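Obj.: predict assembly geometry.
Materials: sequence records (below).
Method: joint structure prediction, all chains together.
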Amino acid sequence: MPDFAIEAKQLVKKFPARPGTGDKKANGESSPAPKRKLWLFRKKEPKAMFTAVNGVDLQIERGEIFGLLGPNGAGKSTTIRMLCTLLEPTSGTARVNGFDVVKQANDVRRSLGTVLAGERSIYWKLTGRENLEYFAALYHIPQTVAKKRVDELIERMELKDRANELVEKYSTGMRQRIAIAKALLARPPILLLDEPTLGLDPQAARNLRELIAQLKQEGHTILLTTHYMEEADQLSDRIGIIDTGKVIALDTPEGLKRRIEQKEVIRLEVTGWHDEIGDRIKSISGIENLMSRQQGEADLWEVNMQAHNSRTALPRIVEHISGNGTRLVNMNIVKPSLEDVFIHLTGKALRD
Amino acid sequence: MQTQPLSQPTLSSHLRALFALIRKDWKQYWRYPLNAVSSIFQPLIWIAPVYFMGQAFSVNGKAIGFSQFSGTTDFMSFILLGTVLESFINAVFWGMGYALKNDMDSGVMESNWLTPIPRLLILVGHSVTNLIVTAITSIGMLLLGGMIFGFNASGDVLKALLPIIPMMLGLYGFGFAFAAVVMLMREANTLVDVSSFLVQIFSGSNFPVNALPRFLLPVALALPLTYGLDSVRAHLIGTKTILPLQWEMVLLIIFMFVMLWIGTATFRSLERRVRTLGTLGQH
Amino acid sequence: MRSEMNVKSLALPGFPADVQAFWAIVRREWTIFIRYPSWIIALFIWPVIFPMGYILTARALSGMDGSGLTTFQNRTGLTEYVGYIAVGTMIWMWQNIVLWAVGYSLRNEQMRGTLESNWLSPTWRFAYLLGSSIPQMVSMFMLMLVSGLEYAFLFKVDFSGSLWLTLLVILAAIPSVYGLGFAFASVVITLKEANAFVFLVRGIVMIFCGITYPLAMLPNWMQSVSRWLPQTYIIHAMRTAALSTEGFSGITFDLKMMMLFGVAWLAIGYMLFNMMERRARQTGAIGQY
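Observations (raw structure tokens):
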């Protein structure tokens, strides 16, 4: 029996839906709320449920970085919460470090270092050091070991000169670093990072990604969720793409991109775009998944599409664009990225 | 290369965790120093109109009418002891009441619940700090109040501790249950305000309960705190008691066990509910 | 290139517009107030239970044979204490509620994020304070009415005074009670630990204004302090108007003092508001919390 760091089998999580919405699936479809019969005959209506996670299977190897990639609302955070024992699954099982998340919850917590909402998970009226010393005690770390460990982590996170100041005076980046140090305190074999670079400036995000790579070198297994595809691409050994509560693809980044390798991505920058032009272009054979996005305030649109053969498609595309106030400003043919894989699989963009 | 985990749970590591919880709450409390000052001065402000009102009914500082109900003419000593209990009731209703809700609203509840310690221990930690801090501010208030208004305790302080212990344990057991209830409510201020106030009044902190009109007396008699305060006063300033002291002690001990059981059970039920519905971290 | 058409503003400034804006503020504040169900408890329950502590203590002080009560009567010339205490505590409750409700009105808006949106509009800014206090006054008036009825019928208090005089006292009290609230609103929004100030002020009223006892019980130095607090005169006037048969002559002095203080506190409140508003325009600090 192979020993996975994290193993989830058909994890399902349903929440009671708000009244009047009927049964909703995570993809937004809803069966209509049942019509109200005459109150005498009305049986007790079954509670309407919202399915956030709809049968997730995961097998994460020891020592790998696994990226869970998906748009907002896909069920990433709910999945992570079930794995770290904050939430109980409606059905299905999960084992972390060999321990069952429901029946052996404390053993799971001892094996994990988790970073959820970075800024608000630590005490603002304690110093950085006091926060770490406190949590070290809660993780059953022997006292002499704890003191050294805290110093070590403060040094590693480059917080040495601010360690004795109250957290309320720290910047966002610093608070995130304390949160990560907190996760590393007990030197857990497995780390769960939920959107770790969200809200960080580019330099801080870059530093964090380097750290994650280092942690893998040191032997940690890392499960991270993100909706930044470059991040998932750069860091992960394997990626699971999750959408509407299900893992719809699981492979290495290259493996995923190879799926649409036979396709190319045509990226246009256009002024004076109209949706009718898009409709006309879509009717060209071999063109799929056309997406248009306005660039900020200006009258500039970025239009992406996937083509089986760009060479034959291009002249026809240009034909449809010219004239009537529409102008082609720039054009690129690019190799598919993970976002394109996502669009191919779901028909939706990764970022909204 | 496997990473070696540092987490080794033992009995002493659990005690260390409890101590860390207490130390954390303690540090946080004293970093808002105005709270401590307020806890000492507020009760004295509330006593002032009672003092002057008492003067209006007294001759030469002795409340003759009052002694017919209570067994002492020393009105202010009576009131000051009652005020100490009021401080604890306030501390439990407001401090313990909001303990979990504050943790949740400030985002630290998740971090705490992710650790491998039993979650009830977190509440125990809050209770211990609350108890110690309130004891400190109450003693300060009692000393200051004694200087201003006069306080005479001729009785046996050690004997007075006997009823205090089960009373406090029972009160904080109630605090556990209350914390769980408040955490689930969106807007708990009114409930906490009104119930805290009513409990303070009916436990006899401002007057001997036998002065109540007939139809209100059962409310006071149903509150275990009434007997606790009654016993302490009897030990310290020699007032008449509602029931013989031994009976009151038995009632207090029963109260303690019942409340600790209710408090723990309510908390466990909350814990289960949160794990199923995931209200942690969202509000 | 499309030509720009002349855009015609829909705003029509003038006195009717100011009145309309003021009324809109009042209506908004009332709507929000009604939507919090706890106001029912505030209205019916607090006026009864808050004085209860004092009243029951007074009952105990009277003694089983009423000997304490005799002492009280000799000292104060009053035959009953329930109405006496109820009126005094009601005035304290009024000032307390105003300090919290009006005092925090701007700060609450700031925290909700609506202060900025309000201040972007061309309405006279002091109108926001004035406007949000109107519904508060109405609810307070209802509270006093309900409370009076509860005490008259449930506790059998003999309100032998005049209803009209009582109403007159309430009206005369409004400027100082709310002026203090306005002053607070401007202070609260700039201070971090504003709670301490509210506790301080309501503590002073509690100690010095005779809410549950006659002023004669205070040592001389404390009595001189009481003379500087408008609530002292409000309490005295209210008791005279509602509980005694002295009539208008009994309250003329109190009314004069209340008007004086009222004008003073309204002026202070207005001045502090303008200072705060100017500072906000210069430092832009008001929009953030």
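Conclusions so far: Chain C has a mean pLDDT of 85.
To do: check interface contacts against the pulldown list.
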